[in-house]
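Researcher: Next sequence.
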Amino acid sequence: MTVTETIDKKHQEDLKRLKSFRLLDDDFLTKCFEGKTECMELVLRIVLDKPDLDVVDVRTQVFVENLLNRSVRLDVLATDSAGQKFNIEVQRADKGAGRKRARYNSSMMDANLLEKGEEFDALPETYVVFITENDVIGKGHPLYQIERCFLDTGEKFGDGSHILYVNGAYRDETPIGKLMHDFSCTNPSDMYYGVLAERVKFFKESKEGIAVMCKAMEDMRNQTLREGMMEVAKRMLTDGALALEKIAEYSGLSLEEVKKLNADKTAG
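Model: Next structure:
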C-alpha cells in the first residue's frame, strides 16, 4: 500500500468514526462545546434546574496543574455571570466516574480559585457534574446531587461545593430525559434541542467541521503514538544499556526530551 493509499484509508476510517460520535464521547463533546456558551448554558440550566443561569465563559480540555502531585485535565470548565464555576465530565466507562475522582476534581478546582492573600470566603460556588453513559449510582434516578451535611440533622453544611451525577441512560419526556437522549444521538436530526443539534451537525456534515474533527483525530493518533514512544524511552532508560542519544534516535523523541525523562527518573 502506498503512502497516499494509507492516508486515504485513514481518512475514510476517520469519516466512519465521526459518524458514530456522540456527545457522550469526551473528545467530541469538548469540540462541540469549545467556546460555545449556549451549549453549556442549556446543559446547566436543565441539570441544575436554573432557567436563568447565564454562562459567560467556556473552556475545554483545561489542564489544572499540581506541581507536587497528580494534575487533572477537565473536559469542560465554565463560569456563570455570578462567578460560579462548573466542571462537566462525560464518562462512558463506569470506572472513570469514581466518587473519589469527583472529590479530587472538586478539590483541584478549589485549589486554583484563590489568589495569595485572598480570604477563604471569596471561594465561589463550584459544581462538578459527571454525565455517565450508565447509571453508575444504580438507583434508577435521572440525577444524583451530593452535598456535605451535618449527619445528626441532615442540614446542609453550605460550603459551596456541589457534586452531581447525571444518569445518561435515563429516558423520558422531561427536559433531562430529552437531554440524555440527545447526548446519546449519532444523528443530529434525531435530537430534541436545536442548539446541540446544530453544533453536532456542523462537525458531522459541514466541510469545515469535518476538517476540524479529522484534524483532531489525527492529532489524537499522534499524541497516542508519542505517549507510547515516551513509555518505550522510559523502559530503555531503566534498562540502562543504551546511550541517551541512541534512545532519542530509536524513540523519535528529541535528545532534550530524553534527558528530561532521565532526570525525572533519577529524581523519582
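Model: The beta strands are 55-64, 72-80, 85-91, 126-132, 143-146, 161-167. The radius of gyration is 22 Å.
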